[in-house]
Amino acid sequence: AAMRKARIKRTKTVCTYCGVGCSFEIWTKDRKILKVEPQQEAPANGISTCIKGKFGWDFVNSEERLTKPLIRKGDRFVEASWDEALDLIASKLTEIKEREGSDSIGYIASSKCTNEENYLFQKLARAVMGTNNVDNCSRYCQSPATAGLIRTVGIGGDSGTIQDIYSAGLVLVIGANPAESHPVLATRIKRAHKLHGQKLAVVDLRKNELAERADLFIHPKPSTDLVLLNAITKYIIDQGWGAQSFIEERVNGYEEYVASLEKFTLEYAEETTGIEQQTLIQLAKMVHEAEGVCILWGMGVTQHLGATDTSTAISNLLLVTGNYGKPGAGAYPLRGHNNVQGACDFGTMPAWMPGYEPVEDAQVRKKYGHAWGVELPAKPGLNNHQMVEMIHKGKLKAMYLFGEEMAIVDSNSNHVDSAFEKLDFFVVQDIFFSRTAQFADVVLPAAPSLEKEGTFTNTERRIQRFYRVLEPMGESKPDWEIFQLLANKLGANWNYTHPSEIMAEAARLAPVFAGVSYERLEGFNSQLWPVQADGTDTELLYTDKFAFPDGKARLFPVDWTPPFDPGEDYDLHLNNGRLLEHFHEGNLTYRVPGIVHKVSQPWLEVSPELAEQRGIDDGALVQLTSPYGEVEVRAHVTDTVKGNELYLTMNSTTDEDMVNRLTSSYHDRITHTPNYKEMNVKMVVLEAQ
Ligand code: SF4
């Protein structure tokens, strides 16, 4: 028994699923995962976890793991040695770079991988391969929130902590479903609402779990949130409820902003959003009367044509009501992946170096160029949307992608598939043979978080360390080690022996991480950036100044973009999103038998009215068609949706049920985030039940 006990190991790790960033101890015996044990000292979650964090780890031991590099030979993939695979990648990338130029290659990073890995990947793209064509999946989700915040308050991150959300007087959730996408955070909101008198308002197309409990639930017409936000902000100003001294002391552009709101009257808002004026007034009053307002938003806001503008309107409302820089207030875009915040922070973005220093700034390039011993490209690179377009135009010839299932999660899948088929050379690095890997020339086996060390940054800007629990399976390797091996084959001379050395380099170069170190992050310790050189971190942003040279925030006028109209043939509105049990498209959670047993397929939510009208029973097989493709899925009749609005869960198991067969390539004007949530379809019943 003592022997057996000795083999049981407890290791601190950080959940690999969502942006809440729960940390806990994981108990293992050899490769067997015995249990997950949350600890009181975990900063984001204490003793809470959700089903994914607690039971979602079996994918690590899946027999489907990639354990050897694979090289395409005609229609087949054959196993290869690391040397063989990396030599081939190095020679192909070099050849394409020499023939077509550095900017003919694109690099897609991973929000599931560590800060250190994202840092090294952008260094590989920029310093070794000479291009800023590097992006990550925040382009699909939260880039508009980042852009809206950078415009108004200067920093593209949550302005406070999860504790602030917990202690706000009013939590306003717009276009997000935290009970399924950020479960532990939602539990805290539910508790504050029930036990501490916190008010809760939800604006959404679906009556989700938080909406059921909310003091006020508003269901506007699709794609009209900006009108609703501008109208209540105008109403607050007109009533003299604005935070006048805060605005005078801390905010620029007030006069011009007020003038821009002229058309957003309650009448106009009622007509556009379908929400009665009394209800709009009720929401405005709740904002006005609350001791501190936190606004949380997700993809329901950011995946639209006017997404950056709606995010900006949220920040404008917070500024007008003085809800920045104090506890229990502020802006909280909810980060989806465990490390989407960190992937952006550490520079896998086409216009930003690590720590959000612009690539266009000659001083910034000089600093990094000097440290890395190279001259860096000045022109911002392509984002992932532009990369797909450039492949179709014949200008982008090769791609290197890691830990990202682009062939399922990018919009307009048929368009993306045909782009991948045109590539001269494609490297995919992942823990499984993903759908995207089908298009690759070389597939490299990576190691998941339990098999490596590193840090993740959660939605609060909180950097947390995790430790190696298991050895990498087969010949798989941590992503950072793969980048180093490849960089050295490409002529670099990298000698990192541990991720802590990568973090130390980032901390030396990027001022916002100045005092971040592995020693300070030991165990359950964490640091919220910006971190000063002495290690002092920042829980609450903007307490005395905003992140602009004069220290003042900027009200930024925004106008409404009406939703895309595909014509009357497509008579139903289709929304989509996550569900609690599955993470995203499901590449990880579909390899967890317990979760698959509970939820095996996606489904389509159909309102009782529409079901009645079309003769659809629960379980009927229906076909949805958009101008871009078709999907077949089972219907679930429920009153969470209304009228002609449908909702499709986005976990997909087959080529036939991928929601992105239906989405278009239209996108937010500023950030190119696809308008996944603005979709119209037609529906036919294939099988009554
Ligand atoms: Fe993991 Fe998010 Fe669940 Fe926490 S709430 S256990 S971070 S999936």
Structure description:
The chain is an alpha/beta fold and 689 residues long. A 7-stranded mixed β-sheet has the order 5-4-18-17-16-6-7, sandwiched between helices. A 6-stranded mixed barrel has the order 23-27-24-26-25-28. The radius of gyration is 24 Å and the shape is globular. The relative contact order is 0.16. Bound molecules: iron/sulfur cluster (SF4). Residues 15, 17-18, 20-22, 45, 49-50, 52-53, 182-184 line the site of iron/sulfur cluster. This is Formate dehydrogenase subunit alpha. One of its GO terms (biological process) is respiratory electron transport chain.
Give a nutshell description of this structure.
It comes from Ammoniphilus oxalaticus. This protein has 689 residues and is an alpha/beta fold. It is built from 25 helices and 28 strands.
What is the total number of structural domains?
4
Radius of gyration computed on alpha carbons: 24 Å
Q: Count of helices?
A: 25
Per CATH, the class of the largest domain reads: Alpha Beta
Shape: globular
CATH topology of the largest domain: Rossmann fold
Low-confidence stretches: none
Query: Any idea what the CATH architecture of the largest domain is?
Result: 3-Layer(aba) Sandwich
β-strand amount: 15-25%
> Which bin fits the share of residues in helices?
25-40%
Backbone structural class: alpha/beta
Mean pLDDT over all positions:
93
Ends: how far apart? 54 Å
